[in-house]
Design brief:
This protein is mostly helical and 114 residues long. 49% of the residues lie in helices and 9% in strands. It has one domain: Winged helix-like DNA-binding domain superfamily/Winged helix DNA-binding domain (Arc Repressor Mutant, subunit A), CATH 1.10.10.10. The chain contains 4 helices and 3 strands; from the N terminus they run H-E-H-H-E-E-H. The chain has a 3-stranded antiparallel β-sheet with strand order 1-3-2.
Length: 114
């Protein structure tokens, strides 16, 4: 089974948050909230559960410590792995295909539908 089909939306958003640069946990949580339009608001405990899932799957790894100028209190930084990038690409194709199929449907509301 493809790992991207078993990941929850919050985990996919974590991968997206790390797609362009390494980041620490709090920044990842903030990015997830922003990119999801507030629909996914991770609390610390749930964030680290999802992070553990993607790390165990080899999609995210710890990155070297803070770069110069970064706040050293930010703790561990995380990085998307090559496999994590592959999962994001596969997810993009899967979602594009799903949207294409939906766009071909003639969805209309029927009398009596709410």
């Amino acid at each position: 089974m493809d790992i991207s089909t078993t990941l929850k939306p919050a985990a996919i958003h974590i991968l997206l948050a790390l797609a362009e640069h390494d980041s620490h946990g709090y920044a990842v949580m903030q990015t997830v909230r922003q990119q999801s339009g507030g629909h996914i608001s991770l609390k610390t405990g749930s964030f680290y559960r999802h992070l553990s899932t993607v790390m165990d799957a080899g999609l995210v790894t710890e990155a070297p410590g803070p770069k110069s100028g970064d706040d050293p209190r930010r703790g561990t930084y995380y990085r998307l792995t090559a496999r994590g990038r592959q999962v994001l690409v596969a997810e993009r194709f899967r979602l594009n295909d799903l949207v294409a199929h939906m766009n071909r449907l003639k969805l209309t509301t029927r009398k009596g539908d709410a």
